[in-house]
Specification:
Blueprint lengths: L1 H24 L5 E5 L1 H11 L1 H21 L5 E11 L2 H11 L9 H5 L4 E15 L1 H68 L5 H35 L6 E5 L20 H22 L4 E12 L7 E11 L7 H67 L5 H35 L5
Parallel strand pairs: 1-4
Antiparallel strand pairs: 2-3, 3-5, 5-6
Helix pairs in contact: 1-7, 2-6, 3-6, 6-7, 6-8, 6-10, 7-10, 8-9, 9-10
């Protein structure tokens, strides 16, 4: 029976070693670049596609805002052209415009059958909407949409920092977990070697030796699993930074001990995402006003200065025109009323979204603060437990060497110390992630 058990354990050990080698060999041919947390944040802000898209959308909204201001300025057009015709009306009018009309042109035969005439014309046309409320409302709406896109880009930037910090802490945790797993394997190997020597002297039973071999197999299997998880964490961080798959980041920072959190007032209305929603609500309100103002008449200023000539290098005649025009759309097939209803609903939606986000922000702050407090308690508890387990492991080792503890007691103490150390690392990483989340929730933008 013992022989079968040893064979099974040997197979398990043999299987765990290739798995670990495969996890480590997966990074063969892959470049590793050392990276601090701040460098990771800087690279993410420079290369993250989500942030690049948000900033491009901000610039597009800014362009729309500038375009909406265009109709408020005077519009000046220049038209130039050449026409040759023997149309009686064209010939009569062209000679008048060119200032070349004579008494001979009043001959009925000449009026009915005129000779073809050239007309080179140049005209400067000015049009200016002196009073058009819809243009002002449209400009205000576009400006608020641009502001909303700008704040959305700021929030995306903050989210990029949050994700980068979380992924970096995850990579740090995986690295520390692998170091703990390596130490666990070394301890299990040392214990197995010690047990073999004692078994050779008849001080331990075959069952004790089998148990030590099983602990080593389990430690190596855990080591392989942690190595694979670490590789995944590094790849996820590199992907977030915009790196190619053949380059892995290597965190240079270590998980720092918890520190005192900065206290400060929190005004959710000053957070970037709330500012974006507030600006979107303002834009919807302006759109509603624009639909209402479509019923108001508009007044335009018109002006023209034109030259006419039979020769492209001459100016035979010039004239000017100045006028004011009233525009008033009395009926448009109920289109304006439909636009008004749509704008009213969009305004209501934008307002509700803002109010809901405002309530959520306050709740998120409470949750984030509780998460940090809970994570801090977990760090303190796991650090105490890990220190106690490590001290117990050392004490149990001495007792075992003195013959006062059994092999099972020692193996259990070592297993407990490893588990507590891994728990401490996980708790510390969770704490830093909770702090990053709290910073994101209560961030204030100006």
């Amino acid at each position: 029976m013992y022989t079968l058990m040893r064979l099974g354990i040997a197979i398990l050990i043999g299987l765990s070693v290739p798995t670990q080698a495969a996890a480590q060999g997966a990074s063969d041919g892959i470049a590793v670049r050392q990276l601090s947390l701040q460098s990771a944040i800087d690279r993410a802000l420079a290369n993250n596609p989500d942030l690049a898209i948000a900033e491009a959308q901000r610039d597009i909204a800014g362009s729309h805002s500038k375009s909406a201001s265009g109709p408020l300025w005077p519009r000046l057009d220049v038209n130039a052209g050449f026409i040759r015709s023997n149309d009686p009306v064209f010939v009569f009018g062209t000679k008048l415009r060119q200032g070349r009309f004579t008494a001979a042109d009043l001959d009925f035969q000449e009026l009915n059958n005129p000779s073809a005439i050239n007309d080179w014309s140049t005209a400067f046309n000015l049009r200016w909407s002196l009073l058009d409320p819809t243009l002002w409302a449209g400009r205000s709406s576009a400006s608020n949409r641009s502001e909303a896109a700008s704040w959305a880009a700021v929030r995306t930037r903050e989210a990029t920092v949050l994700i980068t910090r979380s992924l970096y802490y995850r990579a740090q945790s995986a690295t520390a977990q692998l170091e703990a797993a390596d130490a666990s394997v070394e301890a299990a190997e040392s214990t197995l070697d010690s047990f073999r020597k004692r078994a050779g002297r008849g001080l331990l039973t075959e069952a004790d030796l089998l148990q030590a071999e099983a602990e080593l197999a389990a430690a190596r299997a855990q080591q392989a699993a942690v190595a694979s998880s670490r590789l995944d964490a590094l790849q996820d961080l590199g992907l977030h930074l915009g790196w190619s798959s053949d380059t892995l980041p290597e965190p240079t920072d270590t998980l720092a001990a918890p520190s005192a959190l900065s206290e400060g007032s929190f005004d959710p209305e000053e957070r970037a995402d709330l500012r974006a929603l507030a600006a979107a609500a303002e834009a919807a309100d302006d759109a509603k006003k624009q639909s209402t103002m479509a019923y108001i008449p508009a007044v335009d200023l018109l002006a023209q200065y034109a030259t006419y000539s039979s020769d492209p290098l001459a100016f035979d005649g010039t004239n000017w025109t100045v006028g004011v025009m009233l525009r008033w759309n009395l009926f448009s097939g109920f289109g304006r009323s439909a636009d008004g209803q749509r704008a009213e609903l969009e305004k209501r939606i934008a307002t509700l979204e803002y109010e809901q986000a405002l309530r959520d922000a306050k709740s998120e702050l409470d949750q984030a603060e509780r998460a940090v407090r809970s994570a801090r308690l977990q760090v303190d508890a796991t650090q105490t437990a890990s220190a106690a387990a490590d001290a117990g492991r050392r004490l149990m080792r001495r007792r075992f060497d003195e013959g006062l503890a059994t092999a099972t007691d020692l193996l259990q103490a070592e297993s407990r110390a490893t588990a507590m150390r891994q728990g401490e690392i996980a708790a510390l990483a969770n704490y830093h992630m909770a702090v990053a989340r709290l910073d994101f929730v209560r961030s204030q933008s100006n």
